Structures are given as C-alpha cells and as structure tokens.
Amino acid sequence: MTQKAVILRPEAVWEVEVEMAFWKREPDAHHARYLELCSERLDGRLDAAGGEELDAHLAGCAACRERCAELGTTRALVRALPTLQPRRSFALSPYAVERRRLGSLAGRLSRLAVGAAAALVVVVSSSVVFSGPALDTPAGGRQAESRQTAPPSGGDVPNAEGQVAPPVAVVVAPASEAGAPLLRPLNQPFTGFVEASRGLGAALGAACLGLLTGRWLTLRRLRRLDD
Amino acid sequence: MVGGLERTEPLELASDAALESSEGEAELINATQAGDIRAFNQLVERYQLLAFNVAARILGDRDLAADAVQDSFLSAWEHIGSFRGTSFRAWLLRIVTNRCYDRLRRQKVRQAQSIEDMLSSDEGADLPTPAEGPEQLALRQELARMIQRGILSLPPDQRTVLVLCDIQGLSYEETAAATGASIGTVKSRLSRARNKLRQFLRGQGELLPSRYRQ
Q1: Is the ipTM, as predicted for this complex, more than 0.85?
Q2: B77 interaction partners in chain A (CB closer than 8 Å)
C-alpha cells in the first residue's frame, strides 16, 4: 500500500507520515479531556472525583503522564516571564481628559449630522415620490394648467345654459421664477404629506446645519487646546 | 526552575498584597465617580503596570500596548459612573482586553515586525547576576522571546486567558469577569492554550528544558 502511494504520489506519503507522527504525539479527544483535568490540577482547582479519575487514567497512560508533566513545565515557564516596564505613566492630565471629551463630542456631533442628513434625504425623496408631479416646477405648473383647461371629467357637467363651469378646485399661486404659475389643486391627495415633509425637511436641514456648526466649534476648541 | 529563570520575579504586581486588597479602593472609586481626577490617578498608579503587561503580552508590541492602556484608562474615566461591580481590577481588565482586541483587528499586518521590536527591546533587558554568565543570560533572554512568540501564536481568546491566569495570576473567577466568559469556558480555553503552547515549545528544540527536547 505504501509502495503504491510512493509511486503514485510521493508527497502524499510524506503527508501521511507527518499526520501519523502528529497523532502519535498529540492526544485525541478522549485523552485531551485528561489534559484539561491536568490543567485544573496545576491551578489547584481539581475536585476529588476529578483527581481520582485523572490518577486512574495516568496510571495506565504513559503518554498522558508525559503530557501532564510538560504542561506543568509550560505553565512554570510562562509564569516566570519577566515584568515589562512601561516607559511612561498613564496618569490622566486635565488636558488629556478635556481633549478626549472634545474629541468624543466632535465624533458624536459628526454622527448625528450624518444621521440628520440621511433622514433629510429620505424625507425629501419620499416627498418627491408621494407628491406625484412636482407642483412647484414649470412642468408641474404646466400639467396643472392643462388640467385646468382640459374637458371636465366626472363631476364637471354642463349647466342649464350648456356652459361648462371652470374647475374651481384650483388655487392660482404667484408665478414662480421660471414664469409658470404655482398651482396647488385642493383635491390633491398628498398635499398634507407634502406640506409636512417640507416642514420636517426644513427642520432636519436646520438640525444638520446646527450640528455641523457645533462640530466645527468643537474642533476649533480642540485645536486651541492643542495649541 | 529551568534555564536561569528562577531569579525572575513572576509579576510582583499580580501577587502584590496591596493590589489584591481593596483597602481604600472603594473610597477612590467613589471619589472618582464624583469627578475627582486625582483619586482616579491613584487607581491608575495602582493598576497601570498590570494593565500594561496584559496589553503588551496580548499585542506583542509595547507602543500599541501603551496606546491601548492609555485609551483604556480614558475610557474607564469616562464610564466610571457605570461601574457597579465588586472588582475594579476585573472591570478595568475587561476594558483593556477589549481595547487590545480592537487593536489586534486593526494591526494584523504590523504584528510580525512589532513582535520582534518588542522582544528585542523588552525581554531580559536586565544584566546577568554574578552567578549567571553572559551566555546564560543570552539563553534566558532567547527563551523568554520564544515563549512570547508562542503566546502570540495562540488565538486571541486563548492568549488573553493564558496571560490573565498564568502571567498575571488571576483566578478563574476574575478571568471570567475580565473576559466576559463563563468559568467553564475559561478552564477550557486555558487548557487549550497551555496545550498549544506546549506543542509550540516542543517544536523549538535547543533552548528548551530537557523535557522538551526530542
């Protein structure tokens, strides 16, 4: 079997030999449990029942006896490592504390500003999505205008003289900068939402600005502190 | 002991009676919680050597360790109001080990070089004793470096438990409190860490005590 393996794949034989050597020397799961008991005994934390179990196993297992002895030596070597001396004291100065406080504050303000900006983006996007065509844009104005002149649908029926009543449910706002009138149909279903979004957006924008200003002031104080 | 290690004191601070006792510590903690930075600095003086050694052994880099320890004390100062435990040492060490984990995650690339820097500058920087010749001193220093390399070859959770239990001499209970693990987990990690270190040392040869030589 080994000969065949050598012919077919010499490196595989080497791998097998290495693995066999490993398993000869290192414990399997059953023996590993006794190493754990050994470890506890080294710390003086093994109870009587565990001690008896360990002793009974060690009496018949030379490999585990050796491993336990090595474990004790390992522990002793680690415990004998020298103490490392720091090159400076870590006592806190009022400067270090204030610097840390300002740094943390600047970080918090940054995170809040980012959060406010993200919320602002969400509010504006949802406002655009739910409001349909933007009413305060020239395109929106033109659309609203075309709705004003289009033949009535639904409730707009000719009166007794056969004239069609103009759509009354439209408020004509002052002309926008682009020249198109700002129209806001009273029966627009999301008008309230759009208004609320605008209010919320303005508040978030102001908060964002305030937070960024606060952060800038904090960083300025930090720089002055460093100077 | 082996290889001239018997004259090395195993971390005085860890076994120091002043450290173990909480005499006056409660007052210092109360004063710190009231905003007294001088009281906090007395706690810093008491624990900085311990904190630095834990961080240095876990990180394998004295500069990183110093940063982690400074950061830990600042963090402890900021959050001392939330301290309700019975062991300030375990609470502080939990902060230190968390800071070390943060840095290990960030500094993986640097580590290999840093280990050598730390080992060459720290281990056995002392002079030989009259009974110990230069050659023995060199061997002792090399052995200490090898053990530190072995410690750094362990996974971080096992390394931390080994450092706290075996180098700093913390009990299982304190180690559990400092790492946020159960006592059973601490026992298991410690056993695995010792066993891996044993295997590492077995592979090293010449410098090791005769028990490890093939």
Answers
A1: no
A2: 92, 97, 100
pTM over cut 0.90: no
> How far apart, in Å, do the first and last CA atoms of chain A sit?
78
Put simply, the chain A residues between 110 and 169 with a CB less than 8 A from any chain B CB are none
Helix/strand/coil for A140: helix
Q: Which of chain A's residues have a Cβ under 8 Å away from the Cβ of B196? A: none
In whole angstroms, how far apart are CA A24 and each of A15, A72, A193, B10, B192? 14, 21, 76, 34, 18
* Nearest to A85, CA basis, from B143, B62, B159, B99: B62
* Number of Cβ pairs < 8 A linking chain A and chain B: 133
- The series of mean pLDDT values per 10 residues for chain A, 227 residues long, is 41 46 58 91 93 94 92 92 92 88 87 90 79 53 49 50 52 50 54 76 88 87 80
Query: Does the CB of B52 have a partner CB in chain A at under 8 Å?
Result: yes
Q: Which residues pair with A175 in a beta bridge?
A: A181
